[in-house]
Amino acid sequence: MLILLIASLFGLLLLGVPVGFSLLGSSLIAILAQGTIPLQAIPQRLALGLDSFPMLAIPLFILAGTLMEAGGITKRLITLSEVLVGHIRGSLAHVTVVSNVFMSGVSGSGVADAAATGSALIPSMIKRGYGKGFAAAILGASATVGPIIPPSIPMILYGSLAGVSIGKLFLGGAIPGLLMSGSLMIVSYMIARKRGFEKRERARLKEIIKAFRDALWALLMPVIIVGGIFTGFFTATESAVIAVIYSLIIGLFVYKDLKIKELPKKLLEAVSMSSSIGVIIAASAPFAWVMAYAQGPAKVLAMFQSISDSTIVALLLLMLILLILGCFLDGMAIIIITTPVIMPILAQFNIDPLHFGVILAINVMIGTITPPVGTLMYVAISIAKTSVFQFTKEVWPFFLVLVLLLAIFALFPQLVLFLPNLLMK
């Protein structure tokens, strides 16, 4: 039954069936083949898959990100990034990375960050001779940081499934996210020097102060969200509500770039993006249930125990499996499918679920820039109007440094656990 479940999933994916319907279809095939499980188990599990208060934060953060982009927050964060790092060779590549760092503190979605910053920066990069492939590659790679620096939609999903504090997961992603961004800037600088990319004059102090003042309200948002969660004033879901209200107030009454007549369109955009994620979350629930019924977690645990009793070997093997899955599955689906299977392995090998949750989020985000299914890859190449081949050709240095950092975070847990242990004992 387990083999049929997995084989039918990949068979449907290879046929081009959308991820959510592939998960649902493979569950149905396995249940029909088993013969004794009632079919009403599928709609029951579909409903249970979405019946979660923490998961309510996902559509709310998506809505907040949509409102912020329309409310002028994105363009002010890009302007701030330009005055801070525009003087470094390969200026727009660094602006892209830093803009995504700032955006990651407000939306929690890599796709939303890439769409917002890419539409503004990629045309400028192409115009200045960076090349379509490189422009798409640096956008995709830098957007992987979006769900690592808090808030984070993947961490909300994992935390609700694994029973791990979402506030601690948010804090755990801060240091890795900043290290990832810094490393991407180093790689960008090396490529810029080799190819002779332009650099701009250093901004004057007056320009920096003005950019900070204009972006202040945008910069306050992650402080309010993360600060409120780890001090216990509100939960992750309540922080998402605050993010929506905050973005509405700032967009309508402070920056005044958001118009009331635009609200229905922005709501529809958020609903469209949320529903696509919701279908995957709902469809993953019966898939995970059938896998548990077929004793998938126990069989995977037995396989790991037969390979090695080393915690490091088990952790690195998990990372390798997740990287491979990231080439073929959406990140949300990977988290939902693998979390119930992996939890017994974490307990058996004494791996901290908090530590693993952060590196799991990094892992699935790296998968978003790998063909053939990488969502960030497709967002970037659609904006840059380039090909998967050109993207892959340019993204590999960024991919390699991200995988190296993933291994470092896996081997040195304190890089993840330092802030949660310091601020949320």
UniProtKB/TrEMBL annotation:
<feature type="transmembrane region" description="Helical">
    <location>
        <begin position="240"/>
        <end position="258"/>
    </location>
</feature>
<keyword id="KW-1133">Transmembrane helix</keyword>
<feature type="transmembrane region" description="Helical">
    <location>
        <begin position="169"/>
        <end position="191"/>
    </location>
</feature>
<feature type="transmembrane region" description="Helical">
    <location>
        <begin position="354"/>
        <end position="383"/>
    </location>
</feature>
<feature type="domain" description="TRAP C4-dicarboxylate transport system permease DctM subunit">
    <location>
        <begin position="7"/>
        <end position="415"/>
    </location>
</feature>
<keyword id="KW-1003">Cell membrane</keyword>
<keyword id="KW-0472">Membrane</keyword>
<feature type="transmembrane region" description="Helical">
    <location>
        <begin position="134"/>
        <end position="157"/>
    </location>
</feature>
<feature type="transmembrane region" description="Helical">
    <location>
        <begin position="270"/>
        <end position="292"/>
    </location>
</feature>
<feature type="transmembrane region" description="Helical">
    <location>
        <begin position="212"/>
        <end position="234"/>
    </location>
</feature>
<keyword id="KW-0812">Transmembrane</keyword>
<dbReference type="Pfam" id="PF06808">
    <property type="entry name" value="DctM"/>
</dbReference>
<protein>
    <submittedName>
        <fullName>TRAP transporter large permease</fullName>
    </submittedName>
</protein>
<dbReference type="InterPro" id="IPR004681">
    <property type="entry name" value="TRAP_DctM"/>
</dbReference>
<feature type="transmembrane region" description="Helical">
    <location>
        <begin position="49"/>
        <end position="68"/>
    </location>
</feature>
<keyword id="KW-0997">Cell inner membrane</keyword>
<feature type="transmembrane region" description="Helical">
    <location>
        <begin position="395"/>
        <end position="419"/>
    </location>
</feature>
<dbReference type="InterPro" id="IPR010656">
    <property type="entry name" value="DctM"/>
</dbReference>
<feature type="transmembrane region" description="Helical">
    <location>
        <begin position="312"/>
        <end position="342"/>
    </location>
</feature>
